[in-house]
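FORM 7B: Structural annotation worksheet

SECTION A. Query
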Amino acid sequence: MIRRRRIESVRRYTAGFSYIEVLVASVLIAISLGPALEALSSGVQGSSIHTVSAEDAYILRAKLEAVLAESFLDLDAAANAAGGPGTASSYSDVVTLAGGRTLTRNVYLAGYDGDNADADNDPFTGADPDLLWVRVAIPDTTLELQTLTMP
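SECTION B. Predicted structure
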């Protein structure tokens, strides 16, 4: 008899959700829906920013590879004409991308002091004759690539 009462009370309790439980669950979902959608919108905005940044990085890498494909003598002449590491060389250009966005790619070339033979810790004074520093940068961004090249 005791056992039968327990089974009946368990059946009554698990028979289903009450109207109050459904109402409370609906209110909780409605309250949390706003912040959840706001969190998703910032993720969508971030993905578009990442897309632009990734496209810029690929264009920057393509320019660096194009500059490094030039002969060392031409690069050395352009470095001498530029006059120092802070002046953009003649290899700099402006690219028009899809959607009408323009992108400036500045190329900086300079002789490089790899062995610090003059002991002044300045990599651009007393440059080695067969070592060039190449930097490709997009102005007003943090995107840039640097490398050294030899003949």
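SECTION C. Observations
The chain has one domain: 14-149. The CA atoms of residues 75 and 109 lie 7 Å apart.

SECTION D. Sign-off
Analyst initials: ____
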